[in-house]
Amino acid sequence: MVPPPSRGNNFPATPDRDDIDKTWTYLQAGIDRIMDNLHEGMDMQTYMGIYTAIHNFCTSQKAVGFNPQQNMHTGAHRGAHLLGEEIYKKLIEYLTAHLDQLVQESNSHQDEALLAFYIKQWNRYTTAAKYIHHLFRYLNRHWVKREMDEGKKHIYDVYTLHLVQWRSVLFDKVSEKVMAAVLKLVEKQRQGETIEHSQIKQVVDSFVSLGLDDQDSTKTTLDVYRYHFERPFLEATKQFYTAESKQFVAENSVVEYMKKAETRLDEEEERVKMYLHTDIAMPLKKACNQVLIAEHSGLLRDEFQVLLDNDREEDMARMYSLLSRIPDGLDPLRSKFEAHVRKAGLAAVTKVSADVEKLEPKVYVDALLEIHTQYQGLVKRAFNDEAEFTRSLDNACREFVNRNDVCKSGSNKSPELLAKYTDVLLRKSGTGIEEAELENTLSQIMTVFKYIEDKDVFQKFYSRMLARRLVHSNSSSDDAETSMISKLKEACGFEYTNKLQRMFQDMQISKDLNEGFKEHARALDTKVLDSQYSILGTGFWPLTAPNTTFNPPIEISADCERFSRFYKNKHEGRKLTWLWQLCKGEVKATYCKNTKTPYTFQVSLYQMAILLLFNEKDHQTYDDIASTTQLNSEALDPSLSILCKAKVLLMKPDGKVGPGANFVLNYEFKSKKLRVNLNVGMKSETKQEEQETNKTIEEDRKLLLQSAIVRIMKARKRMKHQQLLSETINQIRQRFVPKVSDIKKCIEILLDKEYLERLDDDDLGYLA
Amino acid sequence: LDAAVNQYFESNGISIPSPQPSASSKRDDAKLDQMFDDMRDPEKDAKDEIGVESLMKYFAVLGVNPETCEIFVVLDIVQATSFGLITRKGFVDGWKATGVPPSISAHKKHIKDLTKSLSTDVSYFKKVYRAAFTAGKEPDQKALGLDHAVVYWDMVFSPPGMAWETATTDWLAEWKEFLGEKWTRSVNKDMWNQTLEFALKSMEDESLGFWSEDAAWPGVIDEFVMWCRENKRGGVMEVDS
Question: What is the DSSP letter of A475?
Fold first, then answer.
């Protein structure tokens, strides 16, 4: 600020360097001027005079006989020590008196006037302190430094001394009153008045400046500020909001209160930014959260059910954001949410499941999806898409997907219906869905699939229906099929979809084979039927050999044999089994009298075999048909019934198809369509298939469990029973949720087969 | 005593070619061989085996009541491999392993002593119990028919075997009643062995507090416990009600 005086100059009126009283009197005049009239300025001469006086005093030889030269060079240790102290003490006395005077003056002010007074005096005092600090630089540099180096307590540099004095003389007496004024002002603002908040800001700064570290005066702490400002501020805040919120909830709805609380919380955050120290941000937030939220959390939570029931999304979002501010605030919400979603899901299922037998797969899956979509949306919009809430949603969905009214009739019902719906979507049908929409729906299927516990059941049904789609080539699109399989693969892994993919491959290979066969036949110039063969790997397809004997018509068998030879030539040693029950074809009915263009009948191979008999003779007995075709009655009767029902054949006598009946070709056959589909499955067939599927599931599960147990034991050799249980559950859970009793049964089977042995202490051992 | 026994055999001077190196053991073998031949019915039994009828006679000779688990003590010694079938090797090796002099009277005494210890020596009882499964099943079968198993349980779980009962409950009766109601299948080795483990535990804690579904008990034991709880019987009742 001011350049240090150069040593060669002489200044008049400097006092006797040895006389402390004279020296101080000289100094005080200058200090007074700085303190009270700084705005008038200070001339260089006075400034220099004071500086020199201090210097001279500190370097005087009064105390010991060192020569000045030496004193100067050795830092004037002893002399400066003694004499500096006297000046330092005088300064303290002076400041104490000065501040006492201020305390007196402050008594005549209060509230905002007191604040104004405090701030004004603080500014004046601290500015002066800086100047004085510079004037006393010599003292600071030598005596003070020396004292501090020696570890003396309560010796400060001159500026800090000013602050210490302020704190001990004035602050202790007036800070409470100042703080009361601050709080009054803040309360005014909280009640909506406009206030001069820069005053508070300055008070805060002053309080912070007074935080001197008693251990190390070069450091500052927030202790003074925290004790004198933060503490009462937080206290007042709590009181204010406790009272306000209590009154508010008594007079208003919970929803209104949440809005109020939200506003208040925002305001307080704004307040920190506007004029408070950032140190208060956290504790203030905590205090507000406590009184505004935590203390009313019970009330809020009680309201949550009401909000859920009425879909008050915005209010739920508000409640979420409020309760997320307090520890463990959301847990009760999550469990209420979970229970609510589960209930909603169960109710939705109950609504559609009046008649489980006739329940449309689409209706069922849509009911499940609707609930999921609704509440997933809620989680996204109201609950910040939070992972915990998503978990609650998942838990609830898993519950109502796997255990609902529909599943009561059979726990496999959910995966079965889901697979059936997928079949409906992927099957060629009149209601062509757009590609994009189909893809979308398949994704939704996967949403439900994710919650299905018995994924193996889905797999079973899916693979059966996929087989049917492929064999009858009535899949709506290869792309959609592939997309679905890759979705399943993504969800459950390679093993889950392995067979499904192999089924696809077989179809592709068959296509090439057929082309090869056509070419082969052309080369030999043999006349062949317009036929298509599918070669399906036994291990991959959920198909079984026909359960009837069958003697195919000569036209068919000739072609079949030709193909067999062709195939065996290519792949020696492979065994072909004809799945007659899955074969189908078309025949032209040229005999009908009522039409010029002949009808085309789409028929099963069994039906074809029956119809071709009528080329020989236009009436046949049941027994003749049975003996020629070799079909047993289980296969023959339904085939005949459909032909009769469609009036392609006429039966005599009327009644049930069976031995003794006669059939005549109906030359009068009429149909609106030229192509007539007679290859329609019987209801009882699909029913039976379902039962079979369910039965194989139980058997497959046993095998799956046993192989998992053996796998685990093979790796571990010896294991505690309980550990084996949980490990097995872990491994199997992706496919289905095994029951403990089922696992134990499998362990017993393995014990009996001597794959495992019982060892001491509930241990099981692996026997190689 | 051993020395005296050896003396006795040496003085008898019986000699049969045998891989055994020691002379005294050779003589023991010969004596036991002779005893085996004595009980064998040359017309009905094969050369190195005796069948049921000869066995019954043997029991009579030993003074063993064929309706008690004493027979399992004997069958355990002679290493019976299935019901009513004892081999020469099992007989000779088995008796030799006991270290008892090869005479009917010594054998009789040994059997009586062992039978007495059944109800007090748990580990010996366990040995005999386990042997009963092997000795009691039909040849070529892996499991015991339920009827047979029940008869054997009757034998082992009542004196001179170890009575399966506690202060308030006749467990054997409960077990048999449960099997009659709920069990139709045969009894495999695991079920046989674990039934004893369960019996021993139940006698320590008749409230069945030791049981848990997750523990290693076979399914049939789980079902039995559930059955007991449903029926609110025995010790279980005291705890549950």
Answer: B
> Which residue segments constitute the domains of chain A, with CATH numbers given?
20-221 (1.20.1310.10), 229-309 (1.20.1310.10), 313-497 (1.20.1310.10), 583-681 (3.30.230.130), 687-766 (1.10.10.10)
Q: Measure CB to CB from residue B218 to each of A722, A725, A748 and give the nearest one.
A: A748
- The C-alpha of B214 sits at a distance from chain A's nearest C-alpha, in angstroms, of 6
The pair of structure tokens assigned to A556 is 């068919």
Q: Do B214 and A725 touch (CB under 8 A)?
A: yes
Provide the 3-class DSSP secondary structure of residue A652: strand
Q: For the residues of A183-248, what is the DSSP string, one character each?
A: HHHHHHHHTT----HHHHHHHHHHHHHT-B-SS-TTSB-SHHHIIIIIHHHHHHHHHHHHHHHHHH
What's the CA gap between A665 and A467, in Å, rounded?
A: 34
Residues 175-234, chain B, touching A (beta carbon < 8 A):
188-191, 193-194, 213-219, 222
- Is B142 part of the contact surface with chain A (CB cutoff 8 Å)? yes
Tokens of A97: 């008196």
HEC assignment per residue over chain B? CHHHHHHHHHHHCCCCCCCCCCHHHHHHHHHHHHHHHHHCCCCCCCCCEECHHHHHHHHHHHCCCCCCCHHHHHHHHCCCCECCEEEHHHHHHHHHHHCCCCCHHHHHHHHHHHHHHCCCCHHHHHHHHHHHHHHHCCCCCCCECHHHHHHHHHHHCCCCCCCCCCCCCCHHHHHHHHHHHHCCCCECHHHHHHHHHHHHHHHHCCCCCCCCCCCCCCHHHHHHHHHHHHHCCHHHHHHHC
- Residue A113 to residue A39: CA distance in whole angstroms: 23
What are the pLDDT tens digits along chain B (241 aa)? 555 444 444 444 444 444 445 566 777 778 888 888 888 887 777 778 888 888 888 888 888 888 888 888 888 888 888 877 888 888 888 888 888 888 888 888 888 888 888 888 888 899 889 988 988 888 778 888 888 889 999 888 988 888 888 888 889 999 999 998 888 888 988 899 999 999 988 888 888 888 888 888 888 999 999 888 887 554 444 443 3
Calculate the CA dihedral of residues A533, A536, A542, A546 and round it to 10 degrees.
Answer: 50
**Short-list A531, A478, A530, A487, CA closest to A505:** A478
Set of chain A residues whose Cβ sits within 8 Å of the Cβ of B190: 748, 751-752, 758
d(CA A353, CA A349) in angstroms, rounded, equals 6
Q: Which residue of B has its CA nearest to A750?
A: B190
Indicate the burial class of A557 (C-beta count within 10 angstroms; 0-12, 13-18, 19 or more): middle
Instruction: Find tokens 């499998």 and name the residue.
Output: A746
Beta strand A675-677 with A619-621: parallel, antiparallel or unpaired? Answer: unpaired
Smallest CA–CA distance, residue B55 to chain A, in Å, is 30
Count Cβ atoms below 10 Å from residue B201 Cβ, excluding itself: 16
Give the three-class secondary structure for A89. Answer: helix
What's the CA gap between B16 and B33, in Å, rounded?
Answer: 10
| 3-state SS assignment for residue A46 | helix
For A27-77, what is each residue's pLDDT tens digit? 887 788 888 877 777 778 888 888 888 888 777 755 444 444 444 444 444
Give the nearest chain A residue to B193 (CA atoms). A758
Is A751 in Cβ contact with B216 (below 8 Å)?
A: no
**Chain A residues with beta carbon closer than 8 angstroms to that of B194:** 758
| Chain A residues closer than 8 Å to B182 by CB | none
Distance CA A25, CA B133 (A): 120
Measured in degrees and rounded to the nearest 5, phi and psi for residue A43 equal -80, 155
B188/A721 touch (CB, cutoff 8 Å), yes or no: no
* C-beta of residue A716 within 8 angstroms of C-beta of residue A685: no
Contact yes or no for A480/A442 (Cβ under 8 A) = yes
